[in-house]
Design a protein that fits this description.
The complex is a heterodimer of chains A (295) and B (254). Chain A has ten helices and 16 strands. With 295 residues, chain A is of the alpha/beta class. Chain A has a single domain, classed as TIM Barrel. In chain A, strands 3-4-7-8-9-10-15-16 form an eight-stranded parallel barrel, surrounded by six helices. A four-stranded antiparallel sheet of chain A has the order 5-6-14-11, with no helix packed on it. In chain A, helix 2 packs parallel to helix 4, helix 6 packs parallel to helix 7 and helix 7 packs across helix 9. The two termini of chain A are 21 Å apart. Chain B folds into two domains: 79 residues, Beta Barrel (Elongation Factor Tu (Ef-tu), domain 3), CATH 2.40.30.10; 159 residues, Nucleotide-binding domain of ferredoxin-NADP reductase (FNR) module (Rossmann fold, 3-Layer(aba) Sandwich). The N and C termini of chain B lie far apart (36 Å). Classes of the chains: A alpha/beta (295), B alpha/beta (254). Chains A and B meet through helix 1, strand 5, strand 6 and helix 8 of A and strand 4, strand 6 and strand 13 of B. The complex binds flavin-adenine dinucleotide, flavin mononucleotide and FE2/S2 (inorganic) cluster. FE2/S2 (inorganic) cluster (FES) binds next to loops of chain B.
């Protein structure tokens, strides 16, 4: 297997301890939980998406596991500005604050609360199951550009996380780049649903939700590959990563770093596990791997 | 990632334990360790965590929307169950159980399995002392009520003044968090916090350790996955007894 030279890296304006970040919304609601993941070997963490007002999220069931994946419709529960105090415990660490809003102004407002203690922002314009938020905005390139611009103006690293639930993800990537994004994150979950045959109704309280986990890995690789062709800013790969080889594959498609979410459920020590396999003192220079699958 | 969709179970019996507490027995057995919980799906309403009070039953206190919806169900109605989840109690040797109110529910299967020697049961008044008759069959039971209508007049923690916790290898506790914190304080004075096993209540959405809604300070422990049962020494310098979080993740003082 390909191994990489260990050491801190710079991606999209952020300095990370390694190539592996915690994805948004996974154990990201409290500072202590983020600190636990950082201590367990993650090179950086992304918080739960924070919005303009406190939100309780959708009614349950919010999550079910399916073969090779997780189906969730959390509904973006978050404590809003109250989250600032959670960050006190992890000040100075590579913490990306994920934010969402219903329009560019709301994005700017929320980002403003965290400008003092975030290493950077990740804009969630891609959650597939929150009416008026996320993918509702992220499938329109003009809105993606406007939301990105509203936050990138603050001068902090601004990552934009895209939805695969569009015909052409590259178009949204170019829009984020025009808006001043310093990196693109791909992908958020795929719109999906399951029905309980026993109860004869959709399982999720919200009827449909987003699919993540190994089942979406090929979709994520394809999205990163497309974006690498279309954009000139770094790409952060996300979706279905469970092994060091998945990380290498994502990097060959064009990712400069990766985010890992669902795999944390099976192994909360996944970051150390993957890092143990991925890095070796005589490993290759990552710069030679990123995008190498593009002829 | 293995598939675990909710299974559908049919309610076969509803037992009124007290004016606000009912046991719902269903048509399937779920192998579990006492102290483990399931996510109970009340179709069209919500999904909430509930301890298994027996292999085929949950015992529910009516407190809000989802529990009220459960109370409106009858024999023959269906609910969904995911689980069992969490760690459960781990006991060997002499065991003391301390239960307050509905907190008796996860301790009940421990006692019926013959794993509890002495049981301290507390409630507001006599009619809320649920499972007392059955607990008396398998354990040495002492009761306490706030209004003095049965047993000791006062808190269940007062009974710990008469029983030496040091005589037990394990002290399993479930009830209101202030009551559990008081028990932890007593164990601390006896220098045996590590013998305490406390079953915690935190807001749960996924039940499987992925969403983060049940995480506690300062260790980031997930109540749904690393717990719900924690030994006292892991709780002593934590948020336990001080604050909790609501559905949005905002802190609420206890
Ligand atoms: C591991 C565990 C085991 C439990 N076992 C039992 C049991 O055996 N019997 C029993 O009666 N109750 C049990 N509970 C408590 C039970 O989950 C709540 O009473 C129930 O969720 C209330 O739902 P509601 O919609 O009726 O109330 P709401 O009006 O929504 O809320 C009332 C209170 O219930 C709690 N609550 C609501 N939703 C949740 C949720 N998703 N997760 C956690 N707490 C919630 C909150 O503290 C809230 O303040 C257990 C909780 C946990 C975490
Ligand atoms: C329970 C859960 C909650 C999530 N919450 C968020 C969120 O708040 N914001 C966001 O941008 N993505 C959220 N996601 C999507 C993940 O960050 C990630 O994009 C997706 O799960 C794919 O990665 P994975 O296959 O490694 O999990 C969530 C995913 C899950 C499973
Ligand atoms: S309920 Fe989701 S992590 Fe515990």
């Amino acid at each position: 297997m390909v191994t990489l030279k260990p050491g801190p890296i710079n991606v999209g304006g952020l300095r990370l301890n390694n190539h592996l970040l915690l994805a948004a919304g996974i154990l990201g609601t409290t500072g202590a939980s983020l600190a636990r993941i950082l201590a367990s070997g993650a090179g950086g963490v992304v918080t739960k998406s924070i919005g303009p007002e406190p939100k309780a999220g959708h009614h349950g069931p919010c999550v079910v596991t399916v073969d090779g994946g997780v189906l969730n419709a959390m509904g973006l529960p978050n404590p809003s500005s109250g989250f600032t105090r959670e960050l006190e415990a992890i000040r100075g660490q590579p913490v990306v604050v994920s934010i969402f809003g219903g329009n560019p102004e709301e994005f700017a407002t929320v980002a403003g609360w965290f400008a003092g203690n975030a290493a950077g922002f990740e804009l969630n314009v891609s959650c597939p199951h929150a009416a008026g938020y996320g993918a509702a905005l992220g499938s329109d390139p003009a809105i993606v550009e406007a939301c990105t611009r509203a936050v990138s103006r603050l001068g902090l690293p601004t990552w934009v996380k895209l939805t695969p639930n569009v015909t052409d993800i590259a178009e949204c990537g170019r829009a984020a780049q025009r808006g001043g994004a310093t990196a693109i994150v791909a992908i958020n979950t795929l719109k999906a649903m399951r029905i309980s045959t026993a109860l004869r109704r959709p399982v999720l309280g919200n009827t449909f939700g987003g699919l993540s986990g190994p089942a979406v890995f090929p979709v994520a690789v394809r999205s990163v590959y497309d974006l690498y062709e279309a954009c000139s800013i770094p790409i952060v790969g996300c979706g279905g990563i469970t092994t060091a080889d998945n990380v290498v594959e994502m990097m060959m498609a064009g990712a400069s770093a990766v985010e890992i979410g669902s795999a944390v459920m099976d192994d909360i020590g996944i970051f150390a596990t993957i890092a143990g396999d991925l890095y070796a003192p005589d490993g290759e220079d990552p710069a030679g791997i990123v995008g190498c699958a593009h002829a | 990632m293995r598939e675990q969709m909710p299974i559908g179970v049919t309610i076969t019996r509803i037992t009124e334990e007290s004016p606000s507490i009912r046991t719902f027995t269903f048509d399937q057995e779920i192998p579990f360790n006492p102290g483990q919980f399931v996510m109970v799906w009340v179709p069209g309403v919500d999904e909430i965590p509930m301890a298994l009070s027996a292999t085929d039953a949950i015992t529910v206190q009516k407190v809000g929307d989802a529990t009220a919806a459960l109370f409106s169900l009858g024999v023959g109605d269906q609910i969904g169950i995911r689980g069992p989840f969490g760690n459960g109690f781990a006991v060997t040797g002499r065991t003391l159980a301390v239960g307050g109110g509905i907190g008796v529910s996860p301790l009940h299967p421990l006692a019926t399995a013959g794993l509890v020697d002495v049981f301290l049961l507390g409630a507001r008044s006599a009619e809320d002392l649920i499972f007392a008759d059955r607990l008396a069959e398998t354990t040495t039971l002492f009761t306490a009520t706030d209004d003095g209508s049965a047993g000791h007049h006062g808190f269940v923690t007062d009974l710990l003044g008469r029983i030496d916790p040091i005589d037990f290898d394990h002290i399993c506790v479930c009830g209101p968090e202030v009551m559990m914190r008081a028990v932890l304080g007593i164990l601390e004075r006896h220098g045996c916090t590590d013998r305490g096993q406390f079953s915690l209540h935190r807001y749960m959405k996924c039940g499987i350790g992925i969403c983060g809604s049940c995480c506690t300070d300062p260790g980031g422990l997930r109540v749904c996955r690393d717990g719900p049962v924690f030994t006292g020494d892991r709780l002593i310098a934590s948020e336990f007894g001080h604050y909790t979080r609501d559905a949005s993740g905002q802190r609420k003082n206890l």
